[in-house]
Amino acid sequence: MSNEIKKIDYADFSMGVHGRITPTARLPINASIELTRRCNLSCSHCYNNLPAGDPKARARELTFEEYRRVFDQLAEAGTLWVLLTGGEIFARADFLDIYRYAKQKGFLLTLFTNGMAINEARADFLAQWRPFAIEITLYGHTRETYEGLTGVTGSFERVRRAIEILLERRLPLKLKTVVLKENRHELASMKAFAEDLGVEFKFDAMINPRLDGSLAPLATRLDPADIVALDLEDPRRLDAWDAFCEHFHGPAQPAEREDRLYHCGGAVNSFSISPYGELSLCGFSQEDFFDLRQGSFEEGWQSFLGGVMERRIKTETKCTTCHLKSLCGMCPAFGELENGDPEQPVDFLCHVAHLRAHVLRLEIPPHGDCEFCPGGEQHHALQEDLRRLDGGIKGSVGRVAKLQAPELFVIK
Question: Which fold is adopted by the domain 24-222+266-309?
């Protein structure tokens, strides 16, 4: 018998684990844990940033001892991947204690941070207790843009220094940005900056209302056509959408589960814990949660979240049978945040999805009373956006010429 240890590629390992999980064979392997909603920046687009010194928020947060109990229970339940996020994780004075305890439990830890509080001592600590990944968000490529969004003088230099410190220690750093009206013009230079450093870069343009109900962040959100233009400007991104749609275009769920409200991985393979011990399907959902201060994770996962994921829709909408769900990302949490109703469609996401479907030349079967389909109130606006995309980006990517194809506008 050979004693040689078999090696496996990480991607194959991850796919193998996730492939064994179904709505009937649930396993809580992915955790997203918000350690705090306090932050040392003051970004206008953020959905959960409270002042770093907010005494009420600090007093409500789980203590270190409470986190130890939570991590013990997650390890026992089989959780493997843990994201530690905020707010800003380093806004907690005991963050490194929390992190080290989670590391000692064997989790694969990813850290989301703005980098502002990373110094050489903290980087040395992370090098000793190496995380699975560290992701820093860039808000611009120039000081003017960066600090215009963060609202903090000196933040640009501090994050650049943090990046240097982490790379000097060969820590697994990734950079990303959220694309807004205020920084759209610097997206290419942020990407080039990351490429020059040899680190992965990604971006997202979807902005949500604040968890407290404020719609203020939406003022920074790009228009639907501008969001789809980002796809068209990057051939690799467009190819990725093509590959994605080969697997996920069509009904979001098998026929026997089409009447379920939730179609995501929440309560199937993932979950979220708020800074206050509230266990939920995801960090955006504020409607249903289980208090981990009053019960165990096992109770919350099996009984409470298991019941939430089986909840059925009460109202049939244009989303119910739509084949574009994978392109828009509509979910009950977004409906809850933007409309105050988890079952009410978010028209902004619908607009983006229809534009993206036309660009990718996907069939759009009838799906009820939809404003963006032929005869709908917004169909003309959709056509104008398509013409705008064709005129504004033609030549940057060869496949944009597909917008001229007559069949592109046929709704079957």
Answer: TIM Barrel (3.20.20)
The residues, ordered by sequence, that sit 6+ positions from 176 with a Cβ below 8 Å of its Cβ are 135, 136, 137, 138, 201, 202, 203, 204
pLDDT tens, position by position, 102-143 = 999 999 999 999 999 999 999 999 999 999 999 999 999 999
3 state DSSP class of 372: coil
Return the SS3 of 133: strand
The residues, ordered by sequence, that sit 6+ positions from 28 with a Cβ below 8 Å of its Cβ are: 74, 77, 78, 79, 269, 270, 271, 297, 301
Beta bridge partners of 137: 176
Phi, psi of 31 (to 5 degrees): -115, 135
Instruction: Output the six-digit token pair for 105.
Output: 């439990």
* Element housing 331 (H / E): none
Residue linked to tokens 């939406």: 218
Nearest Cα to Cα of residue 363 among 315, 323, 392: 323
Measured in whole angstroms, the distance separating CA 217 from the mean position of its chain's CA atoms is 16
Q: Where are the domains of the chain?
A: 24-222+266-309, 223-261+314-412
Element (H, E) at 40: none
pLDDT in tens, 346-389: 999 999 999 999 888 888 888 889 999 999 999 999 999 999 88
Q: How far apart are CA 153 and CA 261, in angstroms?
A: 44
Among the listed residues 20, 1, 70, the one whose alpha carbon sits nearest the alpha carbon of residue 268: 20
Q: What is the pTM of this model?
A: 0.89
b/e code 235-262 from CB counts within 10 Å (16+ = b): eeebeebeeebeeebebbeeeeeeeebb
Structure tokens at 277: 């011990």
Residue type, 12: D
Instruction: Mark out the alpha helices in 198-330 (DSSP H runs).
Output: 224-232, 235-248, 297-299, 306-309, 325-328
Q: How far apart are CA 112 and CA 68, in angstroms?
A: 20
Query: CB of 9 within 8 A of CB of 1?
Result: no
Angle between helix axes 379-393 and 224-232 (nearest 10 degrees) is: 40
Chain-centroid distance, C-alpha 13: 22
How does pLDDT run across 32-46, given as a tens digit for each residue? 999 999 999 999 899
